[in-house]
Structure formats: structure tokens, C-alpha cells
Write a structure and sequence with these properties.
The complex is a heterodimer of chains A (219) and B (210).
Chain A lengths: L8 H28 L1 H4 L13 H7 L4 H4 L14 H8 L10 H9 L19 H6 L4 H5 L16 H9 L22 H11 L5 H4 L2 H4 L2
Helix pairs in contact in A: 5-6
Chain B lengths: L1 H15 L3 H12 L60 H19 L8 H4 L11 H5 L2 H10 L13 H18 L8 H9 L12
Helix pairs in contact in B: 3-7, 6-7
């Protein structure tokens, strides 16, 4: 009985089988990489703002504490965006002629708030409270990066659940002493794990089971 | 209800399989139904969300004379400007809190030492008086509380940024700063005394050691 298929079809069948498998794997890998890319998460993308406000200038050059403007960061869920009145505390006198500040003066005069572009946007089904993180020793720069070096603020982390859980599963890797929370230059010491474990105990940070429970963040 | 209708529909489609494009459409729409963003973008008011109700997009401005929630409890802290007494207990914790809050809100102009040489002043703001002048050393504590609450001269009010208890913590720390500049070496504990005496005289204190 003659062969139905020519021997060369062996190659074709192999290429087809392994090719199909490869396509599926590549496709899955591409999706995996895509949802983690900054194109999807918005990380590392500088957002244009209605006023060219520079955190670098105000924090690094002037040494103004985060809490001078973000007054509710220690006590409430929302860190607080300052009203233009806070800008005017200094700018009623300083840079009064600057064109950069024209929208601020305009807003102060008319009472129409400035519409800032939001940089960090969590999904509404995720509950997040700034105060609890600050009070348990999570520093600003742990999540927001070196804001003191950002002329325009950008998100530096993915803000995805995977990233949140990275710390909720191992808080000892990230917590720092409370008096260093607002220190932009803080870096984890070489013995961070031991120090972190002590702080977790000292600050009564809840168990990993509680921190990773669904209803801790989805309520 | 809708769900069961969908199920019936799906069963019919599975049974018939006559209309392949419709079948594909149903399968695809189920597969991508999670792409809708309703849960991620819920119709609730979030801080600083623009209001559709008022023409200027702002939230309702409080009517004149509105009292913030919880402020009645703190009313005894609002003493008269010439009151020489603290309405709060002076504790090390209060002073530590005062130092922290002073550094955040006041040192930008008044300087870490209270001499009126803060960073904003170096940037061009009018120099405030030093806390160490005779007039302010004699001023009652109520005066400092009043200035933080209502402003004074060019200084804006800080009542919107600093709650009353923290204002008193700051006033206590300002008093501590005043005492520090006129402290007698003999009053210091031995270890601090040794440090001061070993420092060459005439060296100005280092500022901004955060």
C-alpha cells in the first residue's frame, strides 16, 4: 500500500503542532507582560498639570514637609490636595509676577478650584487609607518614590493588586521607623528583615492572614 | 432574571448551532464581559470630585458661621489673646508633638530656632520678628495661639491647617525655644552641660539638622 502522505509532511505536522503551542505561549506571555507594562498601569508616565508645580523645587530646594500641604495624610484615607489658599501662604509675597503662577492667582481671586490631573488612581473597589499606612511605618517614598526629585509627579509603581500584596504578605521588608516615614532619603538598612520584624511587632501590624484577607481591601 | 434569559438563549444556541456568528458573539461577549469598568468606576462621591449640582463645579461652600464637626469639644482651647495660661497639660509628648508640627508649618518662615530666618524668608518673604525679642518673650501664650489661629500682619492664619490642640503644642514648643536661647549653662543636665562647655564659643548653632 502506498503511503498517503509524502515524508515531507512530517516536518509540516511538527511545525504545526509546536508552532501552535508556541503561539499560545507567546500570546499568554505577551498578555502577562502587557498588563504589567506602564502602558497599561500608567506607571512612569509624567502627567501634565494646569500649573507647572514642581515637587522637586518645593521639597528639595525649599525643604517643605509633605504635611504642610497634604494635611490629612496622617489621619484620613485621602492625603489631601491643598487649596490655593495654602499656595498663597507663601506666594502672596513670593513670585507674585510669575506667569507660572497666574492660574493660582486666578483661582484664588475667582474661587474656582484648579483642576489638577490625578496621578495615582486606584480602582473604586479597592479600599485604601493613607492614615493607617503612615501610622504603621510605611513611608511616602515606599509607594510614591522620590517625589522630592520629580519636577512633574509620576506614578512609580504599578498600583496593581499584585504590588499591594507584595507588602501585605511581607510587611517586614518595607516598614520603617515612624519618625522616618516622611524622610525622602530613607533607605532600608542591610538588616531590614530583622529591623522590620521588630517594627511589625512594635507597631502591632496585623498578621499576614488578616492583611491578605479579601475584605481588608475590598469592603 | 437577565442571567436566566441569557442561559436559555445560550442553551438554544448550543442546541441549534445554526447561526455560528450569533453563537460566536454570545461567547465573545461573555468572555469580555469583565472588561466593563463599572466596579472600578463607581457612581459615588469621592474627595474633590467635581459636583454636577453647582454651576461652578465645586462642592457646596459651607454657609457663613458653619461649625466644623467636633470643634465644640475643642472650644475651651480657644482662649483670649492675653491669657497667660495653657489650657492643656504640658507634657513631654506635647512638646515633642509641638516640635514636629512647628517644623512642618512654622519653621519654613520662622526658622528651626525661631529667629525668623526660615527658607521662605531667604526666598524673599518679609522677615518675621524673632521669638527672642523682649516683646515676644513677655507676650502671654494666648497671643501666640491667637496669631496661629488668626494670622498677624503678613502672616496668614493657620487655623485651616493646624487643629487647636496642635496649635497649643506649637505654642508650648515656641516657649521652649524662647527658654532655650536664654538658658543658663548651670541649669543643664551634666551630660548636656559638658557638650556645651566643650563647644568653642561664638559658633552659631547649626540649622536644619533634620
Amino acid at each position: 500500500m502506498p503511503q498517503i502522505f509524502h515524508p515531507s509532511t512530517n516536518t509540516i505536522s511538527r511545525v504545526t503542532v509546536f508552532g501552535a503551542l508556541a503561539i499560545v505561549i507567546i500570546l499568554l506571555a505577551a498578555i502577562w507582560a502587557y498588563v504589567r507594562s506602564s502602558f497599561w498601569t500608567g506607571a512612569d508616565v509624567e502627567k501634565q498639570q494646569p500649573v507647572q508645580f514642581s515637587h522637586k523645587h518645593h521639597v528639595s530646594d525649599d525643604g517643605i514637609d509633605c504635611r504642610y500641604c497634604h494635611i490629612t495624610v496622617e489621619t484620613s484615607a485621602f492625603a489631601g490636595i491643598p487649596p490655593v489658599k495654602t499656595c498663597m501662604n507663601c506666594h502672596s509675597e513670593i513670585f507674585r509676577d510669575s506667569a507660572y503662577l497666574a492660574p493660582v492667582f486666578e483661582s484664588y481671586r475667582t474661587g474656582r478650584p484648579i483642576r489638577w490631573t490625578r496621578v495615582h488612581q486606584l480602582a473604586d473597589f479597592a479600599y485604601f487609607h493613607h492614615g493607617i499606612h503612615i501610622n504603621k511605618g510605611v513611608g511616602c517614598s515606599t509607594c510614591h518614590g522620590r517625589v522630592d526629585q520629580m519636577p512633574l509627579v509620576r506614578q512609580v509603581v504599578s498600583l496593581q493588586m499584585e504590588w499591594c500584596l507584595g507588602c501585605h504578605r511581607q510587611p517586614e521588608l518595607y516598614v520603617r521607623p515612624r519618625d522616618r516615614v516622611f524622610d525622602m532619603e530613607w533607605q532600608s538598612p542591610p538588616d531590614q528583615i530583622e529591623q522590620g520584624k521588630k517594627l511589625v511587632q512594635l507597631y502591632k501590624i496585623r498578621s499576614v492572614a488578616a492583611l491578605t484577607s479579601c475584605s481588608t481591601c475590598h469592603r | 432574571m437577565v442571567f436566566s434569559m441569557c442561559l436559555t438563549r445560550l442553551r438554544l444556541l448550543f442546541a441549534a448551532r445554526r447561526s455560528t456568528p450569533a453563537f460566536l458573539l454570545v461567547v465573545l461577549s461573555i468572555a469580555f464581559s469583565a472588561c466593563r469598568q463599572d466596579m472600578a468606576d463607581q457612581p459615588k462621591q469621592k474627595p474633590l470630585t467635581a459636583s454636577l449640582f453647582f454651576a461652578d463645579g465645586s462642592a457646596r461652600q459651607p454657609v457663613e458661621g458653619t461649625v466644623p464637626h467636633g470643634s465644640i469639644e475643642d472650644d475651651h482651647l480657644n482662649v483670649s489673646p492675653d491669657d497667660p495660661n495653657f489650657p492643656v497639660a504640658l507634657t513631654p509628648e506635647l512638646l515633642a508633638r509641638g516640635k514636629e508640627r512647628y517644623t512642618i508649618y512654622c519653621s519654613v518662615c520662622h526658622g528651626a530656632l525661631g529667629d525668623g530666618n526660615g527658607m521662605i524668608v531667604r526666598r524673599g518673604y518679609r522677615t518675621p520678628p524673632s521669638y527672642h525679642i523682649e516683646r515676644l518673650r513677655r507676650a502671654p501664650v494666648g497671643h501666640f495661639y491667637d496669631v496661629v489661629t488668626h494670622g498677624f500682619g503678613l502672616m496668614p492664619e493657620y487655623a485651616t491647617l493646624i487643629p487647636p490642640r496642635d496649635r497649643w503644642a506649637i505654642v508650648a514648643y515656641v516657649r521652649a525655644l524662647q527658654i532655650s536661647q536664654y538658658a543658663n549653662v548651670a541649669q543643664l543636665p551634666p551630660e548636656h552641660r559638658q557638650r556645651v562647655e566643650s563647644t568653642p564659643s561664638g559658633t552659631p548653632p547649626q540649622e536644619g539638622s533634620r
